[in-house]
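for the recovery benchmark. tokens below, seq after
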């Protein structure tokens, strides 16, 4: 549902949306605006650039992909609304940001410790369960094209975070996922939903004490400069669904769509081949920078985190759907 404020902010976008179909095809090139919130030098940023290059190649220049990184066009919540209105045609939001759209099942990806590693995750994103989740977007006027990896999250703050008790009372910035909210609450933290573009400043000024993200996001936003401690906990996964405005996508000429599908397939392979290395390198770079003290959980400490967060699965079953959780767990254990 659009608020009065967001409607006002998107007034120009609405006008554009109303005339979207006709001018897009009357012009020489079909313009596809691809908006995202992270830096160009991240797994998502690089994959978007690769898609741009391949899409223009495979459509023989019929399409012009305009990539807007770093929340230049829209912040988290606004970009979803802009996509539905047709003001942008393509996004790759984190899987943790689909709740406000009414597609709560995606929050299954946020359950703590649900994926042991990228292999386990891929059994979901590259299988039937992943396809079924993307199909749920159609009712919202959105088509899901692919899953792009980022990585496993670390926790950061200005105090050491070794045991679940260390989170007590800390204000932690989170994405909009209710699952993330639930596990932060379970740790005794005070979760605060905030757009990604505002996190650095909020950490710097003490509006929040800490946050979580894969190393690639932490490093490229320079969050390590304003966080004294970080724990490599790998307690949860952050990745993306690449999504398009369905009406726009379905209205594209067949040959153009074939070219774009091929480009998306290759950009996806690329994204998923670089994500782990990018995150490993970002972590190493932050360790070398020395502004944050990094700590890796021992097996025992990790077991204590898992035990503390275990009830979250059951508590969130009603919201996500017990059958979705079961389907993901079954896929992972295959
Ligand atoms: C965040 O808001 O922390 C992430 O979703 C940003 C992103 O797109 O990786």
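predicted aa per position
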């Amino acid at each position: 549902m659009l608020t009065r404020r967001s409607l006002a902010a998107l007034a120009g976008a609405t006008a554009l949306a109303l005339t979207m179909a006709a001018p897009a095809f009357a012009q020489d090139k079909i313009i596809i605006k691809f908006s995202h919130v992270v830096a160009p030098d991240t797994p998502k940023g690089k994959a978007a650039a690769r898609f741009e290059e391949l899409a223009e190649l495979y459509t023989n220049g019929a399409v012009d992909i305009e990539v807007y990184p770093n929340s230049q066009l829209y912040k988290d919540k606004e970009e979803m609304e802009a996509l539905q209105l047709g003001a942008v045609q393509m996004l790759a939001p984190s899987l943790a940001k689909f709740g406000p759209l009414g597609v709560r099942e995606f929050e299954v990806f946020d359950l703590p410790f649900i994926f042991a590693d990228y292999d386990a995750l891929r059994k979901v994103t590259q299988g039937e369960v992943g396809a079924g989740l993307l199909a749920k977007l159609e009712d919202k006027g959105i088509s899901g094209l692919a899953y792009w990896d980022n990585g496993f999250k670390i926790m950061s703050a200005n105090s050491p975070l070794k045991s679940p008790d260390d989170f007590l009372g800390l204000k932690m910035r989170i994405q909009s996922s209710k699952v993330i909210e639930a596990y932060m609450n379970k740790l005794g933290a005070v979760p605060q939903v905030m757009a990604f573009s505002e996190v650095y400043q909020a950490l710097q000024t003490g509006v929040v004490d800490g946050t979580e993200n894969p190393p690639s996001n932490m490093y490229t936003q320079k969050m390590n400069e304003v966080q004294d401690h970080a724990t490599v906990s790998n307690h949860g996964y952050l990745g993306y669904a690449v999504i398009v405005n369905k009406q726009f996508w379905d209205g594209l000429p067949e040959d153009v769509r074939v070219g774009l599908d091929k480009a998306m397939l290759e950009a996806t392979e690329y994204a998923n081949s670089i994500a782990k290395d990018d995150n490993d390198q970002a972590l190493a770079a932050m360790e070398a920078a020395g502004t944050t003290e990094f700590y890796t959980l021992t097996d025992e400490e990790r077991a204590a985190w898992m035990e503390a967060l275990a009830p979250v699965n059951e508590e969130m079953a009603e919201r996500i759907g017990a059958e979705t959780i079961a389907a993901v767990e079954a896929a992972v254990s295959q």
